[in-house]
Amino acid sequence: MTEAPATLSRPRFRFLCALLFCTGMTSLIFQIIWLRGFSIILGSTIYSMACVVTVFMLGLALGSLAMSRLLKNGQRLAASPLAAYGTVELLVGLSSLLVTWTLFTHQNFYLSLSGSPNSPLLSRVAAQFSVCLGLIGIPTALMGMTLPLLSQLVVDRRQVSALYGVNTIGAATGSIISSFVLIYYLGCIRAGAVATAINAVIFAVALASNRFFPPVPQSATEEPAPSPSNTPEGRMLSRPLMLALALFSGFVALSCEITWTRFLSLCFGNRIYVTSITLAIILLFMGQAARMSSAMLRGTTPLWRILLYACSLTVISFAAALLLERSAFQPTQPGLVVAFILLMVVFPATTLGLIFPLTLAARPAGVTNGASWVGLVYGMNTLASLMGSLASGYVLINFIGSNGLIAFNSVLLLIALAGLAYGFRPQFRLTDHALGGVAVLAFLAIIAPRSLQVPPVVDADKAVVRSEDAHGIFSVVRVDDKRLRVLNNRTDLVYLYGEASTQYVQETQAFLPILYAPKLDKVLNIGLGYGITAGAFSRVSEVSSIDAVEIVPALVDHTKLFSPGNHDYFSNPRVRIHVTDGRHFLATTPDRYDIISINVTDPYLPGTSSFYSREFYELARSRMTPGGVLAQHIFGPDMAALYHGIHEVFPYVKGIPSYGNGMTVIASMEPLQPRQRDLFMQHYDEGRALLGTIGIKDGMAGFERLVAMGDESLKELSSRAPEFENSDDMPVLEFRRLPGQVGLFHSNN
User: Fold this and answer.
1) Nearest 5°: phi and psi at 595?
2) Which pLDDT belongs to residue 13?
3) Which residues is 491 bridged to in the sheet?
4) Do 466 and 474 contact (CB within 8 A), yes or no?
5) Cβ–Cβ under 8 Å, residues 678 and 700
6) First to last CA, the chain
7) Bond preceding residue 564 cis, omega within 30 of 0
8) Which one of 216, 360, 598, 625 has the fewest CB atoms closer than 10 angstroms to its CB?
């Protein structure tokens, strides 16, 4: 057999880059699809989504570590590495497509395994983790095997880091393609089928090209250490220190990614496209950094000095960004927003992105199998990334917030900087001392003082409440003496509290279904908000029990701010409050309800759009008692499609006008008759006792006039053909291109 050259030829190397680019792209396409599918099964909460990301990364790590062991001890994979890589890619595609299909076609089965929202946290997390691991454990482990397999074909360590960079850039591309093209035009299952087809092409091309890529001889993998082991550089390249560096870079990068994601959403907006763009930006510049590291290894700058500059410049960039934080989140000058993004995200993602590829490309003394070393380092880095994501997303951000996380990671970088300064002090130049000193001063003067501050999404002088947790930055702002505005990050959770129209809409979302429901024993209110709707239900003494569900904990924590508008529902023994995802609660509860009232903020937002899908209405129908009534607020440019979506599942629909651009509609499987009219007339002063406080002075007579107006509006909506059908597999609303360019980003604020 002809011995392979020590450095892979440029055409062959580019061929491998193209394969790994496609590998990264399809992996991220599947991850984006799975995040949406699991949001339905596990709930669209921060912790449920963190569970999915954790299992995804765990699978990558285990696959990489397993391949490291296989490459070290086995010879069969080394005999035909490209064919083995192609086979793994085919298995990735087939297993991932099976997972995607079952996520969207067997939801009820997986919901039965995911645990009740009312069960203890530990058992609920264990159930969710088990469901995720059982579904995506195998395909993600296979994904983690691909880079170590292909690294068998290269000896030059610079090419290894470049391969990793191209794979990461492919992942960034997959993030964009999945949201802007595949899911938007094809839906989730067919998007997964396209990704699988790409994996099948990779398999065919790899198999056909295998004979052109003979395995690297064992002797070629025994690359000598770049520096003698008794020099500082040689000690730096020792096996334990390089593994520690892989762990360090993985933890810090994913911990920073938690804050980068939040900051970019504050700058860009609240649509699903922002998530994809954010992920793409982070991956793109980290991938580009990996490609840069390949060029750096060709130079004479020692590895320790590159790491020194990466750590120092990252801290300095964080400090400069925090100086612009207030201006960036109160955008009056777009240039400042761009500068903030460059300093807080782009530049640090690039500098931190240098650390791991340099580690990946290094060959400590004694390493005789380069591909096995790549698998080990990649697996350890991914495990550390997992720990950084869990520690920061579950724990640290709840206690120290986004700015605190920046400070925490800056401390870790300064510790690494101190270690470099101590280990290589004889070789330090004046510029090295100066740069390290500037980083320390930047931390002490800027980062540390701001670490305890909540990022200023709103004007602090007008804020009644400003707090931060894993769910976002929660703000209550005083608009004037009577009105409050409530935001989570930059999303208005509800219309202004204290506005007459807000009180009218949210109370009628209780009174309208009460009027038409056959029984009033059990009520479910999804989207608690201010608590006005739950409070209105509690005003009717004939309602026996009210389950109120809210996904944002801070709204429940500060519910007393919205009294007396919410009629102090929180002190009413008939009301039970549940802080969880409303759809998941409805899917897993054993109860059946006479009324299900849904009051979510916006049909176009991630998470809330699933309350307008065909599958959700079928779920609600299955959880209603005979003759039960569903109530929901619809508004916006797609009202006709929203109405038809409800009407396809529920044959009987009525409604009343609400706000200036919407309706409160009720729907049932049985003809809607005002069965509780006598109750309003006899027990509540002809309805005036309930309706008078929201501006309907003549009680039931005025309310019935509103219903007649609603009947006319519904006739008009029914005459308009819907532009689309919204389903879990084809989530048109969530990916809808709203009129105007800003519609891709901001929706309701």
Assistant:
1) -135, 130
2) 85
3) 488
4) yes
5) no
6) 66
7) yes
8) 625
Say how many C-beta atoms besides its own lie within 10 A of residue 181's C-beta: 13
Amino acid sitting at position 621: R
Q: How far apart are CA 428 and CA 410, in angstroms?
A: 22
What is the DSSP code (8-state) at residue 182? I
Q: Residues near 261 by Cβ (< 8 Å), separated by ≥ 6? A: 275, 278, 279, 282
Taking every pair of Cα atoms in the chain, the longest distance, rounded to a whole number of angstroms, is: 97
CATH topology of domain 500-744: Rossmann fold (3.40.50)
549 secondary structure, DSSP code: E
Look up tokens 């309350």; give the residue.
611
In contact, 351 and 289? CB cutoff 8 Å: yes
Nearest to 622 by CA among 666, 584, 591, 662: 591
In whole angstroms, give the CA distance from residue 596 to residue 549. Answer: 11
Please give the average pLDDT of every successive group of 10 residues along the chain, which has 749 residues: 52 89 95 91 79 88 86 67 91 96 89 75 80 92 90 76 89 94 94 97 93 64 43 59 84 90 85 86 89 77 86 96 88 83 94 84 66 80 87 87 95 91 84 92 96 86 88 91 90 90 95 97 95 96 96 93 94 94 91 95 84 95 96 91 95 92 94 96 94 92 95 93 91 82 63
Sheet holding 624-635, edge to edge: 575-579, 545-550, 522-526, 593-598, 624-635, 662-668, 652-658
Distance between CA atoms of 559 and 507, rounded to whole angstroms? 16
Q: Who's near 642: CB < 8 A, 6+ residues apart?
A: 603, 612, 634, 636
The string of DSSP letters for 260-284 reads HHHHHHHHH-SSHHHHHHHHHHHHH
Burial of residue 244 (CB within 10 Å: 0-12, 13-18, 19+) is: middle
Q: Which residue has the tokens 């991914």?
A: 382
Q: Which fold has domain 232-279+294-456?
A: Growth Hormone; Chain: A; (1.20.1250)
Strand partners, 742: none
CB 349 within 8 A of CB 289: yes
Quick one: which of 79, 89, 95, 93 has its CA closest to 205?
A: 89
Question: Residue 684: is it exposed, middle or buried by C-beta count within 10 angstroms (0-12/13-18/19+)?
Answer: buried
User: In angstroms, rounded to a whole number, what is the distance separating the alpha carbons of residues 170 and 463?
Assistant: 42
DSSP 8-state symbol, 224: P
Amino acid at 14: R
What are the residues whose beta carbons fall under 8 Å from the beta carbon of 499, sequence distance 6 or more? 483
Mark 540-572 as b/e (b = at least 16 C-beta within 10 Å): beebebbbbbbbbbbbbebbebbeebbbbbbeb
Angle of helix 46-73 relative to helix 370-390, nearest 10 degrees? 160
User: Residue 458: which residues within 8 A CB-CB, separation 6 or more?
Assistant: 466, 475, 477, 487
Q: How many residues belong to the chain?
A: 749
- 85: Cα separation from own chain's centroid: 30
Domain boundaries, the chain: 17-156+176-219, 232-279+294-456, 500-744
Which residue bears the tokens 């504050």? 266
Q: How far apart are CA 250 and CA 260, in angstroms?
A: 15
Q: Which residues contact residue 104 at a Cβ distance below 8 angstroms, ignoring those fewer than 6 apart?
A: 37, 188, 189, 728, 729
Locate all alpha helices (DSSP H) within 362-458, ordered by sequence: 370-390, 397-423, 430-442, 448-450
Residue 423 to residues 225, 231, 311, 319, Cα–Cα distance (Å): 19, 11, 15, 26
Amino acid identity of residue 506, one-letter, is Q
Indicate the residue type of 337: V
- Rg of the Cα atoms in the chain: 29
Measure the CA–CA gap between 541 and 544, rounded to whole angstroms.
7
- Asked if 598 and 551 touch (Cβ cutoff 8 Å), the reply is no
3-state secondary structure of 519: coil
Q: What is the pTM of this model?
A: 0.89
Place of tokens 């919410």: 566
Calpha distance 127→113 (Å, rounded): 7
